[in-house]
């Protein structure tokens, strides 16, 4: 078994010629999120991976073995649920709402501009369908967000930037948002439905605009020479 105890995020700093010669290892997210696992690379070598606790291997990362050899990590295709908004009865903002509710349930989510990816879960699929979203099951690479406080940046990669913002201001943001979204529409795969949306917007604005009346001005004319 070949021991691996180092990971280079995205292979940064490594010469392209070395990366071209590197072997590969294809791993799904269940394995890549672990810091210790066994795997077999494209050369048939058995790898014993022992990374720092909390390290997550992402597609494109490079493992460094004890003998100095390099192994490129590939994100293996796996079953995922792909969530898209309904172009007929929804808007792209529905994905933002979905990400909010999934995040409240501590669900691992891959965020993309036009879709979300999560691991298969029929209960979540039903919830998302009720939110005007189209859910399909596909085989694809899964790269969920690592979280704001995860090791590295974004997807767990350390970019070597030390951003220290000191504007001399103390920002205390206390946001208490309560969202109650109830939808009576169930959207299944393909979203082949006919909805009659009757939007009744009743805006009752009671504005009390109080304008002070101008006060009378007394002008006194004095005789010239007085």
State the distance separating the first and last CA atoms. 115 Å
Report the sheet with the most strands, covering strand number, pairing sense and barrel closure.
6 strands, mixed
Give the SSE order as H and E letters. EHEHEEEEEHEEHE
CATH class of the domain at 2-75: Mainly Beta
Per CATH, the architecture of the domain at 2-75 is Sandwich
What's the gyration radius in Å?
29 Å
Percent helix range: 10-25%
Q: Numbering strands along the chain, what is their spatial order in the largest sheet?
A: 2-6-5-1-4-3
Number of strands: 10
Apparent shape: elongated
Mean pLDDT over the residues? 78
Structure write-up:
Among the domains are: 2-75, Sandwich (HSP40/DNAj peptide-binding domain), CATH 2.60.260; 78-140, UreE, C-terminal domain (Alpha-Beta Plaits, 2-Layer Sandwich), CATH 3.30.70. The protein is built from four helices and ten strands; from the N terminus they run βαβαβββββαββαβ. The protein has helices spanning 16-21, 29-32, 93-104, 122-129, and strands at 2-8, 23-27, 36-40, 46-50, 62-65, 70-75, 78-85, 110-112, 115-118, 133-140. The strands form two sheets. Strands 2-6-5-1-4-3 form a six-stranded mixed beta sheet. A four-stranded antiparallel beta sheet has the order 8-9-7-10.
């Amino acid at each position: 078994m070949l021991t691996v105890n180092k990971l280079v995020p995205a292979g940064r700093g490594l010469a392209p010629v070395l990366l071209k010669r590197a072997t590969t290892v294809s791993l799904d997210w269940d394995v890549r999120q672990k810091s210790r696992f066994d795997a077999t690379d494209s050369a048939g070598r058995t790898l014993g991976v022992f990374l720092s606790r909390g390290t997550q291997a992402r597609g494109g990362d490079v493992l460094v073995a004890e003998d100095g050899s390099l192994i490129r990590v590939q994100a293996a295709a796996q079953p995922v649920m792909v969530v898209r908004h309904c172009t007929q009865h929804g808007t792209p903002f529905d994905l933002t709402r979905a990400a909010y509710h999934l995040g409240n349930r501590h669900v691992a989510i891959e965020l993309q501009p036009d879709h979300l990816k999560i691991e298969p879960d029929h209960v979540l699929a039903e919830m998302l369908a009720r939110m005007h979203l189209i859910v399909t099951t596909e085989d694809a690479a899964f790269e969920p967000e690592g979280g704001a406080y995860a090791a590295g940046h974004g997807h767990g990669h350390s970019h070597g930037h030390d951003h220290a913002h000191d504007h001399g201001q103390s920002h205390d943001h206390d946001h208490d948002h309560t969202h109650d979204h109830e939808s009576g529409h169930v959207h299944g795969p393909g979203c082949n439905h006919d909805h009659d949306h009757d939007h009744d917007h009743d805006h009752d604005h009671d504005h009390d605009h109080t304008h002070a009346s101008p006060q009378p001005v007394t002008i006194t004319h004095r005789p010239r020479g007085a």
